[in-house]
Structures are given as structure tokens and as C-alpha cells.
Amino acid sequence: MKDNLQEETKYLINQYHVSAKKALGQNFLVDQSAVDAIIRSACILEDDLVIEIGPGLGTLTKGLLEKAKRVVAIELDEKMIAILKERFFLFHNMEIIHQDVLKLNLHELIQKEREQYGVKNVKIVANLPYYITTPIVMKLLEENLDLESITVMIQKEVAQRLVATPGDKLSGAITYSVFYYATAQTVAMVPKTSFIPVPEVDSEVIQLKIRKVPPVELDNKDLFFRLIKISFMQRRKTLLNSLVNGNVVKDKNKLKEIFERIGLREDIRGEALNMEQFAMLSNSLNSLLS
Ligand code: SAM
Q1: What CATH number was assigned to the domain covering residues 2-210?
Q2: What would the DSSP string read from start to end of 218-239?
Q3: 3-class SS shares of the chain: helix, strand, coil, % to 5
Q4: How far is CA 77 from CA 73, 96, 249, in A?
Q5: Residues within a 6 A CB radius of ligand 1
Q6: pLDDT grade for 288, boundaries at 50, 70 and 90
């Protein structure tokens, strides 16, 4: 199976004179077991809309078209667009959009698909271009898109950060964002040798299931995420100093009072706080500041 996909990909590359564009993060997947793992874990149902980001030569697209009611494939590279159109012209449940996904209005796209085709759940499936993994994931989460799940292959180190538990050693500011919007798990490990050309890093497939109810109640979401960002920008400093230096609060003593009230030690670092503690801090600061 693996050889078949590898041969098929090499054939397409030769046939269409493709040279992988590094600047667009083009590493084509040639491992059938990884393709199967992605499609299986995405749990696609027959009335689903699947949005695929960066379909490339169409390696995942084929399996998605066979399962979903509709597949909308968003690709930036014109050359890939031409290949996809030729490869999948027999499928009538597909739309190919030639656009930068970061500039696309996904709200409108989803609404149009619902109205025209009566799709039910919306799932994102992708082997993401690594150079913009984080902005894409954050766009999908922050735009409140009425998605059910996001199943994506990304660089291993980033994957580990996204699926970490807030407050754990591997967590970063983005861990808290992901946790706020979704539950996250790793569904497959994919070595770098599963791609043409071979990238410098291994990959993992992760799945984010969008929460219906957030895990903490926030009076001011922007402040909450600002606090987290500031804490992680100055990882070595105490949270107290980071917040004063970051101009969140000018009066250190007032901040100390809040810390005491919510049970935080004065020398605690931001990275040690879990989700609830950041929420308590942010809600208390919000009352103080407003
Ligand atoms: N899905 C294919 C596969 O698994 O073999 C290709 C994956 S490749 C890692 C990433 C794909 O994303 C490339 O086809 C690339 O052209 C496309 N891409 C890069 N930047 C993009 C952007 N801003 N918007 C949409 N697609 C993009």
C-alpha cells in the first residue's frame, strides 16, 4: 500500500512537472497508513462538510470525497489547483478554492454550504503547511466557526505543545488557547520519511474536538489571553513582575493583595498556573481595572 501511494505521487509529480515549493511548506504525504489514520480518526459521516486546507496533489482529498457529503479544498498554489481539477473532475461533491486560507472568510463559506447543500457537521482535515500551522489553528479556533473537529497533521514539537495540559512542562501560551476552545489528543505519529521531499522534522496527527461549553468562565476573554501571553513571554520572571513590567497593573501592592486572595504565592511563575488559576486572576484583575 505504502509503495502504491509513493509510486502514484511520484507519477503525479513527473506527469505535471511539479517541484515541491519549500516556501509553501510542500511536503507530500506518501504513507498510506498515515492517510488511513487521518481519515479514520476524522470520523467523517455522510452528511458532513469537510474543509481540507492545503490539499496539494490530492492525497487525502480522494478518501475525503468518498466519505463526506461535501469537500471544500482550499489551496494557495495555482499549479496544485490545476492538478486537483483534472484529478477529481468526476466528483460532484467538491469545491476547489484558490486562496490563502488565512485570508478566506470561513464563516461565509460554511454558511453557504449549509444553505445550498444541507450539510450537518463541519470538520477540518489537513496535512498543514508547517510554516503557518499556528496562525491557521488559531484562526480556526478563535473565529467561533461552528466546527465539530479539527484533525490535522503538524510538526511533532508543535503537536506536543498543542495537546499538553495547561500548567504541564510542555505547555506554552498556545496550550491554554487550545484547551479553552477544544479538547485535544494525539492520534498518530508520522515519521519524516513518510513525505516527499523528506522534511527536517517528524510529524504527528492531532485531533481537536471543539467544546460546546468553555472550561472556565471569563469576564474578559481578551484580558485572560493577554495575561497568559505576557507570562509566557517572560517565562523566567515571576508572574507578579511580568504583570507589572508588562503594564497590566501599575500598583504592585494591589496585585499582591489579589494574589493572596486567590491563593497564589508571590514568587509563582506564570507557566505554573493552570487554567482555573489564570481565570481567577483574570476575573479579579478585570474587576480591579474596570
Ligand atoms: N495535503 C497534501 C499532502 O498531504 O500530501 C499536501 C500537504 S503540504 C504539507 C501543504 C499544502 O498546503 C501544500 O499543497 C501548499 O501549497 C498548501 N498551502 C501552503 N500555504 C497555504 C495557504 N496559505 N493557504 C492554503 N494552502 C496553502
Answers
A1: 3.40.50.150
A2: -S-HHHHHHHHHHHHHTTTS-H
A3: 50, 15, 35
A4: 12, 12, 46
A5: 24-29, 53-56, 59-60, 74-77, 80, 100-102, 127, 129, 132
A6: confident
Which listed CATH number (2.40.30.170, 3.90.1520.10, 1.10.8.100, 3.40.640.10) goes with 221-289? 1.10.8.100
Domain ranges of the chain: 2-210, 221-289
Q: Which positions ≥6 away from 98 have C-beta within 8 Å?
A: 75, 76, 78, 81
Residue 57 and residue 75 in contact, taking contact as beta carbons nearer than 8 Å: no
Ligand 1 centroid from CA 19, angstroms: 13
Q: Is the pLDDT of residue 81 over 70?
A: yes
Integer Rg of the chain from CA: 22
Burial 11-45 (b: 16+ CB within 10 A, else e): ebbeeeebebeeebbbbbbbbbebbebbbebbebe
* 253 Cβ contact list (under 8 Å, min separation 6): none
pLDDT tens-digit map of 122-143: 999 999 999 999 999 999 999 9
CA-101 nearest atom, ligand 1: 24
